[in-house]
Amino acid sequence: MPLNPQELQAATKAIENANRILLIPHANVDADGLSSALTCYSIFKQLGKDCTVVCPDTLPESLDFLPNFKHLTTSIASERQFVLTLDISGGMELDKLRYTVEDNKVNIIVTPKKGSIQEKDVSFASSDSSYDLIVVLDTADIGLLGSFYTEHIDLFTDTPILNVDHHISNTRFGQLTLIDPTAASATEVLYAWILSQPTWKALLTPDIATLLLTGLITDTRSFQNPNTTPRSLEVAANLLDLGARQQEIIQHVYKTKPLSTLKIWGRALNHIQMDPDAGIVWSSVSREDLIEMSATSKETAGLLDELISTIPDADVHVLFTEIEEGGLKASMRSSVAIDVNRAAGKLFGGGGHARASGFKIKTYGNFQLQVIECIQKLKTEMIAQRNETNAAPPVVPPAVPVKVSPPPVPLVKENKPPTPSVDIVSVLEKPEAKK
Fold first, then answer.
1. Where would I find the beta strands (DSSP E) of 347-410?
2. What is the DSSP letter of 191?
3. CB 3.0-4.6 Å disulfide test: which of 161, 189, 348, 435 passes with 359?
4. CA distance 251 to 217
5. What is the DSSP string of 32-48?
6. Is the predicted pLDDT of residue 124 greater than 90, yes or no?
7. 242-248 — which CB contacts under 8 Å span 24+ positions?
8. How would residue 390 be classed by pLDDT, with cut points 50, 70 and 90?
9. What Cα–Cα distance (Å) separates residue 18 from each residue in 133, 159, 257?
10. pLDDT at residue number 127
């Protein structure tokens, strides 16, 4: 589904009119979110914009190969300013300006060289933000920005937001949106946006192509996931033509793993459980596991796609991981039979795609008991979805009207009395027949 032309035009105009732009992906950022933010940074900087790109938690070292990674920051300085204005248009000239602090009060002392200061000459103003626009990337709900959002609510309230995403569960927050649920990645959405603007298209470099391809490769798991479309493959081919460094991406994303990552993956594989009747496979990584393996919760990223989801005879695969800031996150993958986006949203307030989704639970008593409770809810939902599928009446294609020709009229032999045979010779011999 192509992007809405009106939304494209509005988003482009917002970029053109902005001077300072804040770019931010979701917390616990993945390769697609970070690549999307850095793509916007690279394009908008070439357009002369002052950009700040924020990674709202610890910078992922595994992605430090991405172009412009060095420009990432994890926070922004407070933008709230208070301005005292002194009107000197009446001919007053200043001699000295100083301040003192007494009894927890700041005294600003102005000494005029000429003229005098009246109360009407002094005014006060405040500014909550010096950003003209916030671009949120690869984020289905604004709450997924985590603590960065809660710590800067005034900033998000007072500044226009452009929401760029590809998740079907996106809540369409913000004043402007560019959302394409049929796109395989957020970078695929950005690629379509860039191509729609000839001046932007001319700015595509091998570095930007590498960023765009990184998001596409990782969100399709090297084009193995069901979200891969013919358009995705076409986009990938075009990016390779533009100089995207595919082997560099593969090397860093799939072939470079720290020892701690391998250890925590091994622990997760050791914890795999399966309910063959329900068709569900799951594993869990506790905070104690992370500490023992000297790993972080981010190092479980990719484990579900690479290993657990390859276990056969299951419709749903789930990985539960306790996270350092508290709570747990769950990642889910499914076969065609189950919609995990529906399950995540209905049961836990999460979301994503029909075949790949996730959710978070902030508070619970015991991690393992919480995992069991989640599995029970998922099994109930899976049964409900299967019952709906089995109960659905067969889809009958609409009847195609057929033009029927009228049957041919049968030749009916009339039942007339037989005509008596006439003996021509005898008739000729009759006397009255003679003249």
1. 351-352, 356-361
2. H
3. 348
4. 12
5. HHHHHHHHHHHHHHHTT
6. no
7. 242/204, 242/205, 242/206, 242/208, 242/209, 243/205, 243/206, 243/209, 243/210, 244/206, 244/209, 244/210, 244/212, 244/213, 245/206, 245/210, 245/213, 246/213, 246/217, 248/65, 248/210
8. confident
9. 6, 11, 40
10. 52
In 3D space, the residue among 249, 167, 164 whose CA is nearest the CA of residue 206 turns out to be 249
Q: How many helices and strands (H and E) does the chain possess?
A: 15, 16
C-alpha dihedral sign at 347, 348, 349, 355: negative
Do residues 189 and 180 lie in contact, with contact meaning Cβ atoms separated by under 8 Å? Answer: yes
**CATH of region 5-77+130-254:** 3.90.1640.10
| pTM exceeding the 0.90 threshold for the entire prediction | no
How many residues belong to the chain?
A: 435
Residue whose tokens read 């920051």: 73
Structure tokens at 89: 């248009």
The pLDDT value recorded for residue 101 is 82
User: Is CATH 3.10.310.30 what the domain over 259-390 is classified as, yes or no?
Assistant: yes
pLDDT, averaged across the chain:
87
DSSP state of 413: P
Q: Where are the domains of the chain?
A: 5-77+130-254, 81-125, 259-390
- Distance between CA atoms of residues 27 and 25, nearest Å: 7
- CA 326 to centroid of chain Cα atoms: 24
CA pair distance 394, 396, nearest whole angstrom: 6
Largest CA distance in the chain: 165
DSSP E strands, 4-68: 20-25, 50-54
* Kind of pairing between the strands at 72-73 and 316-322: unpaired
Rounded to whole angstroms, what are the CA distances from 67 to 40, 208, 390? 12, 8, 49
* Residue recorded with tokens 């626009």: 133
CA angle 176, 182, 188 (to 5 degrees): 70
